[in-house]
Amino acid sequence: MNRRNLSAILRCIVATAFLVLYVMAYIAFEKTVVEWWKPVVVGVCAIAVTGMTKMKRWRWLTGTDDRTLNGLFHVYAVGAMAVGVFLLGNYWLPVSNAAGGRQTDYLEKVVVEKKEIVERDKTQRVGRHRYRKTGVRYEYYISVVFENGMRKDIPVTRNVYNRTRQGSPTGLLLDRGLFGMPVVRKVGVSQAIQDPQL
Prior knowledge:
Elements: H1 3-30, H2 37-50, H3 59-62, H4 67-92, E1 105-127, E2 130-145, E3 151-156, H5 158-163, E4 169-176, E5 182-189
Antiparallel strand pairs: 1-2, 1-4, 2-3, 4-5
């Protein structure tokens, strides 16, 4: 395997790693009680701070001196890193319980506004650029309204979906993440109290 092939493989691995980071950040976003525009602002600010001067540094990865291509990859890569750190850091690193002896997980009452089942096709690769449908899978979501008026679509298991009723209250077990954004740890908790900091 020559050096050119190794370089192409490395580029694909790095570009795929940034894509995986976006996917993981989206999964964390689904469980985080935050408005959609906040992660976008974090990504835009990170891109702006690193600025146009850093675009040339992606030349080793893009393999070209084209400013447009390097600029687009700069937006793609820095955006992935900023949004990933913001959402995944908040999701994986809850505020320590030992800080001041304060318990960080709490219960909150919400109202189930809507229930939705999303049908996705299961596919299997049967050849180059050819796939066949092997079945369907179902994803379950509930749309809840918090007492402060915020709405959030939350992915749930089928059991939780079947137990909840549209228009009825339910409880969420939340945990305050590293950046102060609540993370949904459990849906359908029977007793709920309001957290004054939300």
